[in-house]
Amino acid sequence: MACVAIWKLQSRLIFYPLPKLADSPAAYGASFEDVTIPAPSYALHGWWMPAAPEAPVMLYLHGNGGNIGAYASQAARLRNLGYSVLIIDYRGYGQSSGPFPCEERVYEDSELAWRWLTEIKKIPPRQICIYGHSLGGAVAIELATRHPDASALIVESSFTSALAMGKHLQVFRIFPLRALLTHHFNSVGKVANLRMPILFMHGTYDLTVPCRMSRDLHAAAGEPKQLVIFSGAMHMNCGESAPDLYRDSVTRFVDRVFATSPPSGAPNPAR
User: Fold this and answer.
1) How far is CA 64 from CA 58, 155, 161, in A?
2) Any idea what the CATH number is for the domain that residue 229 is in?
3) Catalytic site residue from 45, 84, 89, 206
4) Is 0.70 topped by the overall pTM?
C-alpha cells in the first residue's frame, strides 16, 4: 500500500505550493512589475525587475516549496547586482493558475517564461542566464538542454536526481524507488551534454540537499564550469551567509561569460 501511495501521489511528496505571497522584492529595495504569462488553459504569475536594456537577464526558477514570495530576497539580490530578473511561479503556485504541478509541467512553465523573455520582451538568448535554486536547479538544467543558445547557467543548492534524493531521505530507503518513481529530474545525466558556462553553488550546512550533490553535478558537467562552496550556509541562505562571496562569485562568472560572448547589439559589460 505504501508503494502504491508513493507511485500515485509522488507529486504531492515533491511539490509544496502555497497560494499567499508573504513577501515582495520591494522589501529589499528592488522595484518590480507584476506580469502574467498566458497559456491556453492557465496563466503564470511572475515578477519582472528590469535593469538597463543591455544588462544580463536572470531567468530565476525557484524550488519546490512556497511560491515566489519565499524567494523575493534572492531575486532582489540579483536585481541589486545590476541584472534584470524574471522570477515566475509554476502553475499551482502563488497567483499562477492551473492544475497541480508535476515534472513535465514545471518544464513547460519554464519554457513559457523563456518565450516571454525572447518573444515578448525581445531579449536575445545570449543575454539570458538561466538560474535555478534547489528543484528549480533541475528545471534550469532541463531548460538549458532545450536552449543551448542561452548565455550561461547558475545552479544553486540543487540535487543530482530525484532517485538520489529519495535514497538520501531515510524514510524512503526501504522502498524500490527506481521502479516507483515517475518524476526523475535526472540532472546528473543531463549536465555532461551542456556546453554553456555553468556555476554551481552550495552551502556546507544544507540539511535539505547535501552539498555533495553539487560536487557530483560539477564533476559530471562539461567545461567551462565552476563550483563555489559556502562554508556554513544552509539551503536557502548562500547569499545571506556570505554576501561578498556570493556577489563576487556571481558577478565575476557573469562578467567572464559576457566578456567572451556579449549579446548581439549590447556593449561589453565586463568590469
Assistant:
1) 19, 14, 14
2) 3.40.50.1820
3) 206
4) yes
